[in-house]
Structures are given as structure tokens and as C-alpha cells.
Amino acid sequence: MAECHPVGFQWVVEAKARGAKIIHVDPRFTRTSALADIHVPLRAGTDIAFLGGIINYVLANEKYFRDYVVAYTNAGTILTEDYRDTEDLDGVFSGLDVDERSYDFHTWQYEGMEVQAAAGHRDLEYQDKAGGKSAQGKNGKRSGAVRQSARGESHGSGGVAITGNPRVDPTLQHPRCVFQVLKRHYARYSPEMVSDICGVPVDTFLQICELLVENSGRDRTSAFVYSVGWTQHTVGVQYIRTAAILQQLLGNMGRPGGGIMALRGHASIQGSTDIPTLFNLLPGYIPMPHAHSNQDLDSFIQGESPKKSYWAEMRAYTVSLLKSWWGPAATPDNDFCFDYLPRLTGSHSTYETVMAQLAGDCKGYFLLGENPAVGSANAKMQRLGMANLEWLVVRDFSLIESATWWKDGPEIESGELKPEDIGTEVFFLPAAAHTEKDGSFTNTQRMLQWHHQAVEPAGDARSDLWFTFHLGRKIREKLAGSTDDMDRPVLDLTWDYPTKGSVAEPEAEAVLAEINGWDSEGAPLTSYEQLNEDGSTACGCWIYCGVYTNGINQAARRKPAMLQNWVANEWGWAWPANRRILYNRASADPDGKPWSERKALVWWDEDKAKWTGHDIPDFSAAKSPHYRPPTGATGAEALSGVDPFVMQADGKSWLFVPAGLTDGPLPTHYEPQESPVPNLLYRQQRNPVREITAMVHPNDRFQPSGDEPGAEVFPYVCSTYRIAEHHTAGGMTRFQPYLAELAPEFFCEVSPELAAERGLEHAGWATIITARAAIEARVMVTERITPMTVQGKRIHHVGLPYHWGHSGLATGDPANELTHLSLDPNVHIQEVKVLACDIQPGRRPRGRARDALVETYQRRAGITERTGTEV
Amino acid sequence: MAPVDIQIGRRPNLEGALLGDTDPATQGGYSEHPPRMGFFTDTSVCIGCKACEVACKEWNAIPEDGLVFTGMSMDNSQGLGASTWRHVAFIEQRKPIAAQDPGIRHDTDVLALAGQGSGTPPDQAAMTPTTPGADGEFRWLMASDVCKHCTHAACLDVCPTGSLFRTEFGTVVVQEDICNGCGYCIPACPYGVIDQRKGDGRAWKCTLCYDRLSVGQEPACAKSCPTNSIQFGPLDELRERADARLARLHEAGVADARLYGRDPDDGVGGDGAFFLLLDEPEVYGLPPDPVVTTRDLPSMWKHVAAAAVTLVGGALAAFAAGRRI
Questions:
Q1: How far is CA B229 from the centre of its chain?
Q2: Which residue of chain A has the CA closest to B140?
Q3: pLDDT tens digits for B81-112?
Q4: β-pair partners for A537
Q5: Which of A451, A843, B17, B67 is the most buried (most CB within 10 A)?
């Protein structure tokens, strides 16, 4: 965190000054470790085993917050008899279709109840609920297309959604209740097992368990903070899930000082999922509709919307979004222009798009503030994909590698490509910086903070808002008068933002006002509860509704901390409804009283018959803790007074996930795609449903792993990461002299032991090799990298900051030449936090000899196109 | 920046200034002036982000000065100089910080690899320079160094042009439009801070952002420091704060913690920019016992004056004698 989020780290330093214990778990000793109380180096790629071990410790020693767990989680919910755990099936769950490489999760459901995933990922049972077989394959098997398009899976047994009450055992004794299933699932994650897998000494591990348990409960809470070190794995989503299980067991969710904070890789990554730059979501986590046959708004809502929780109002959110985009053109008669929305035909994630470029299907590409030629996994594939385009538009501050690969990239240097043979027409458009434009950032706390333009952008640099608005304006001018139905979605858009200044910069606040939404009179809305499904409201993103309450930019509020209470609700604005801690009903006990005075946040005021407190209650303000829904209730009414997790279909937080994940209802330790050791826990080595088959390509070979022959050719664990001196792929830093001089060259970090083993010279050069590429780096021999003992074997890490490329003032080989395209099946993220590699002293060969070196390694390891692709 | 012209050509009262902790602005000739301002750099919360280095360069328009991978841990700026007015040192050590468990378990003879310890030049070290110590103990110290703005500033004493002057805030500033590049100040600095810029010839160093102070703003480095490792304020207040912080660290078992440059009775009369360190000053590349290099000037000048009188007397005598001839 101190490396990549030094500004946010000030709060950790402050917490420490107030007595908080800081535990840092990371393979390398970083700036964060320097200030932590304890640094726990663990083998990269083993966090589920580590966290699973803590879960086992908490369960085995009865250290969970029982009252919280019983009341607010699905611990007591009873599963169907058909469920089989990884303990029963040696590392896979029931429902695995080996040929399709996917799970049928009908066996993961609650007994007697169908459960709908909370957000976004709830499409797979569409064919069941919408009453058709449209997504079934020809042979009766489900087509993989829907799963691949990042629809997590729900379950159901056909027909429309079944509501009902699950069977719950509040004593947590029933052998099929979630609690007992969880206990069995993690029973073998013992301290010794953790030590053998993670390379963490048993004593250290137990110390962490004790510290965490001591600091959780009625009076105390612990928070988890993670970054892409947890997400960029073939089991990335399950990493976060493991932390979520632990935080639920310890009662650390919805309470002050608790939670799981995702530190994003860039400013406003949270904002770019809320109002998504993702292919599979519409604003506010409404799923993107699929190209199902005959799909209309009714069947979309029917297929996607849960009956309980706030998601039951999805029709109102969707209709208001359509009204926001198409205004008067959106009417009840034309389904509010629902047909204007694009449809998904499969997965269109960034890596599938690269494969589509290579296949010649994707012909044009916009890169806005992104440098995939350096920053994305298997950088060569990225460049080869771009070399197969008709046109490429790059908007950035500097002439980054993704704009110049066609004249000076590694393939030009090696002779593999020649500029005169590349047909891609490349447009470079200079971009304005955040200081040169108005706008908002949404941080990991879901808080929007407005920033005001300080200076005009220099020269031709323009904001993304300017670019998008004027591009749309010009396209609309070109299409004006068209009678082709295909052009209606563009021509009917509300595209009338006011502009200002000499360059006609659109007013960013007008966009914010549109996102917030208005009623039929044009008055700004104050809450998403006002949204209607009859077309009388417009709202660009339902969860942001209220950010422009009373026509005032709430995100621009900067009331100092000393002038308000410690929750500071008047600094910026957080969704939903300016609540600062999500699900904060859980900060009070089932009767509505704070679990403890020390940790009081919101509570039920019996006299006034409403929820009150320091934060804005994330709950129906007038819903008594003693409210129980009548039979047949839907939406928010169907949630009882003790259901704090109001976006979940059952109002409970999920220890066990019956719907919404593609790779299992419980996190399970799998070895990474590439690992020097076998999986100690199960015969199943890797995540069986990781996304890999679509990525097989001569330039993306995978390596043997574990005890497979040839794995010894790549004996070291390799991890890519960031350091404080540079930002991601370097577009913002390597071209700036003051930043370039702080870390002017690509380097690798190795322990003194590995340096001795391979003869690496400090400050000299090393060549790092995988089945994809060979790169060179300056050598940093440092005790900050420590050897570990795993399964009785000495394990070394090679640390690679990934910031550099061939352009700019600070240069070097991109670490992402080494990485591969095996992805997490839920969110399609690349596994770049852990690979296996070899390292040798000296600089890499030049030209064709570089490829020859890689081919030698491939031959030695016996690599074929099938290697590493096993289920 | 009105006070600047008051100062040009005005020499401080050397005799008075060297007697002890008298207020440097008063000694500099200001009858009314704001309290003495300075830095307290608490290295125990420095995270080595280098925001201070960059903010300093941005604000003061200092040129980039070398794209060199040094191998000295994360330190590629190497030290204070004409074009580096804030510098973050990184020290990897086999030493514990109180109760911290670093989780580092090495079992090879890294000491043999480390060779000569923390001062080892990168091209001679077989690993990142480190300090010897026990296995399993490790800490990574970071510290942002800066001009000390001494109470008794030798650089200012020796400057023949009046380019270096004492501000009303008690800080020491070099004026780039007056400096003639004579370089006298460079060996005069007991910390090796002030430096001549290559290809320019003039002397440069931290101004404690005199231009920002003059309009009521804090220096750029302190403003940018995310963890409040660099604290700016009236020196009296900073000293109190530092004493409290030191007491707290000692209480927490960080026995190594110490203040550096805080003592008004040290060889430079105390620093306007002082530090909380977690080890000996030498570990950070700081002199253990700095002394103002012009300390002996007054007595030297007395001897010179006496010698001159003797010489002149002799010459006169000779002249008189000559006339007599």
C-alpha cells in the first residue's frame, strides 16, 4: 500500500499512531513492511491456503462471533443433498463438466429455494427463468458463451424464479448447513499445512491468527486491505471471497473499522465499474443484455431481477437509464428503446478482444489512457493484435509504446515485423490530465470527490469528455437525416451537453446531473427510491442517484473533519445514498442495539421508531428490527428487520455462495497456472475452470507445473508488481524527468541466496526466461526478498516491477513479455502475480537469437500446445 | 519578498552569532520578524515515496540530474546536491525495530556478500549495501535529508557577494541572481549540502521555499509528504513535538531513536531543519558531530589583525627608518 498508494497509506500510519497493529502479508518486504508491526512473506499464489488456514483456526477454536454469524450470515442455511465438496471429490465441486470446463451449479443451492446472484452475474439461469432453451447447446448441453461473458452462475430447476424460505438451523448443527460444510471444507487447512504450502513458519501463522481474533468481536474490528496482488490470479475472485468469509465469521462487515478495502490500480477504477468501462455491465451493475432470441425488456427483467432485496426494483433502474440515454424517444410503446442496447454474443474482455484482433474479427481499437504493449499480460500478443487492425486510436499524455510499436517495438528490433508491412493506421491524440479538466473520482469507499480544472490543457490536448462528446456530435452530424433503423440508437441519444471555453469543453457537471437523474419536471432526484418504471424518471446510474440533490454537486463538498462528526458524511458523496459504511445495519445486534458502545455506528431508536446514528443507515429507516415480512412480499419489503445485507436476495451475507461464481461456492486452494510444486491439498492441481482454451496460441505457450516432467526447467516463482516511483505501464511517469530519474531502469529483485545459486551480480544484468519470452533486467540483490521452505523444498522468488518499456526517459524490457493469458473465469483477469521462470546472469540475446533461447527452453521442458491446458 | 534588499550587503554580527542560541533572524539584523521556521523530519514514519524530492524539483524548477541505476536499495538520487535539495536515503539493515517482526529468514553468509557494509559503493557490493547484524533481524530505514538551515551557518559567513543571506524566518537562502560561483560556501558547509551546479557554476541548495513562506504557504516537500514525516512550523513548536515523539518511541521500546540537530548547544548552534533518526547519524550519511566551519574565524581574525598591526607597525618602522637614512 505504501508502494502503490502512498497518499492513502497516511491513514495506516495514523491508525498505527493510535495503536493499531499493522500486519503485512506479501512475498516481498516493501515500503509497507518497513512500517508494519509484522511482515509475513508467503509464497506468491498461496493466499487462499493462508486465509483458509485462519478460517480453520477460527472455526476449530470457536473464535467466531457467534451472534453475528447466526443472525446475519447464511451459516445456518441448509444445502441440498446433492452438493459435493472438494473434500469429497479431491479438489473439484459437484457439477463439473470436464469437456465444457464449466460447472453446473444446480447442486450448490439452498434446500427448497432458488437463489439469485446479487449483481451483474446472474444471467446463466436466464434460460431457465425466461422459460426457454435459447442458451442451450445443440447437444442439450449449455453453451459456454454465457458463462464466458462473465455471467456468474446461479441455479434453478427451470421455470420462473422460485421464491421461498430456505431451511435454517440456528444451532448450526445440521450436517448440511453452511457452517458445517464450511468446517469440513477447511478442516485440513491446518497450521502445518499452511506452513508447507505458503512457506510461513507455523509460529508466525499462529501469531497472525491470534492477533486477528483478539482484535475482532463486539468491541474491536479488523480491516483487510488488498490490491491486485490478490486479484490477478486464475482464482482471483476466490481470494477476495476467502477474506469475505473470514470477515463474516469475525463479525467485521458493516461495522466501523472493519470491511475489506480494494485498493484500485488507478484513480477512479471504482468509478469505472460503477459506470462501467466493462463489456458485460450497464451503469449501476445492471447486466448487459445477451443476444437471446426474442428478448425484450420484460424477459430481460424477468430473467435478471431477483424478487427480493433492492434488486427487485431493477425494472425502475433500467427504464430510468433508458430514459436518461434516449429521452423522449424512449416510450412505453417501444420498450423504452431497450432494443437500442447492444447485445452480448459471448465474452468480449480485453484478452478475448486481442484474440479477435489476431483472428481478424476486431478491426478497430480505442486505447484511452492504457498501454497494453507494456501493461497487459503477454505484451507481444497485444502488439501482434494491434498489428492486425485496420485502425488504432491512442489517447495519452506521451507517445507510449502502444502508439509506436509499429516503428520501434521489440518485433521491429528483432525483424519479425517490418513497418512497411503493417496495415494498421495509428492515430495519436494528446490527452488532458486530471488537473486540466473538471470531473470526479470515485474511490474504494465508493466516495465521489469532485476535482476542478486548474489550468487549460496545453496545445491539442483535450479531455476524454471533450473527445467523446465531439466524436459523438460529429458522427451524429454525419448520420443526420438517415432513415436507416440501424442509426436510430445514435440519432435518438440525448446528446446536448452545454459546452464552455474556447475549445467547447462539455460541462462535466451537466453529465453529473444527468447521472443523478431528474423527474418528469426536470427536477433533480434525491434518491434511487424515487425511480419509477413508467418512464417518469430518468437516471444515468441508479446507485449515483442523489449525488446532485437539490441541484448541488454533492461530490464537491469539502467540509473539514473538525466541523462534523467522525463519519464525515459532508465530505464528498458516497453511493448508495451517501452511506459511508455499506450494510451498516450489521453494526447493531438483531434487536437494533450497537454490539458495543465503542463500535456504535447506527442503531434503532425505539421512541422515534427509526434507525439513527453516526452514519446514514444503509437500511429502510423505519423498518423495525422486529419486522418480519408477510408471505409473498417482494423487493425490500421481503427483507426482515434482521437482514442487513439488503442487496442480497436473502438479506444475509454469504459464507457459501449458491449463485454468482463460476468456479465454486467456497474458495479452495489451487496452485497457480505455473508453480514449482504440486497441490498438497488435492489431486486437482489448478482451478479446473480457469479460462485458458481460448488463449492457446504459438506466442502464448504454457509451462509444465508441479511434479510434471519439465517443470524443473522453470524452477523459480516470479511475481510482477509496482513500486512507488512509477505508475502502472509508465505512461504517466517514465516520460517525466523528475520521476524517471527516481527509478531509471528496469530491475529484478532477488535474494542473496538465489544470486549465489545463479551467479547473479548486484547491479549487473540478468536474463529472465519463461515459455513466452526472455527479458533482461538490472539485478538488485537484496535481503528484502527471502527464500522460503515449501514442501521441504527451497523456493526462491524473482521480483519484477513491470513499469518499463522501450520509450520514454526510463526504459527497459516490459516484465509482461513473460506473462501468459490464463485467466480467472469470473472476471477474466490475467494471472500476472505469479508465474514460474528461470533466471541466468548476463544480458539477453538480440534479434532472432532471443526467440531461439526461448525455443530451447520450450524444448527442454517438452512444451507443446497442450502443455498446461489440462483441466 | 521585500526583505531581500534589506539584506544585501549586510553582514551578520559574527561575534554575536557565534556565542550561542541567539535568534538568527535577530542576529541577521531584523528588528521585527516572524518566529524562526524550520523542518522536523520524523524518519520513523517515512515511507520513502520520494514525493518530497519530486515536489521540491517541481516547485523550484530544478533540472533532472542523472538517470542512473545505482543498486543502492531504492536510492537512485544518491545524495543532496546542486540539483537535489531533498534526498531520501534507503538503508537496509540487519537490525530490529522494537517489536517488529520482518519475517526475513536468510541462511547464507550475506555478510560476506555485503562486504564492507552500508558504505559499499554499488559496483563493489555483491548485494544491496547492508549493515551487519543477526539473522532474522531486518529493517528498512528511509529518511528524507535536506539543508539544515544552521543557527550558525558557515556558508553564509564565507559568502563574499551577499548571495547567501539569512531570511526573516531564520532560514538561509542563496540568491541565484547574485551568486558569482566562487564556491567558497561548498567546503564551508559541515554537512556537504550546498553544491555547485555543473555547467552553471553557481551554488544551489534548499531555500526552505522562501517564496512560499513569504506568502504564508508551507514548503513544497512538507506539503506533499503523505505521512507527515516532514513537518514544517515554528522551530520551538517542532522541538516540543519532536521531544514528545521521541519519548513515545522510547516508551514503545525503540531504544535507537534519537533527535539529530535539535540541540541548540551543538557545533552549529542547532539546526533549523532537524531529524528523528532510528540509528547513528553516520548510517544515514550524516556527520555525527557537525561544527560550523567558521567557528574559529573571530579568533583567527584577531590573530590576523594582530599580525597585520605588527606587519604595518614593522613597515612603518622600516619606512621611518628609511626616511631617516
A1: 16
A2: A34
A3: 999 999 999 999 888 776 678 888 777 666 56
A4: A519
A5: B17
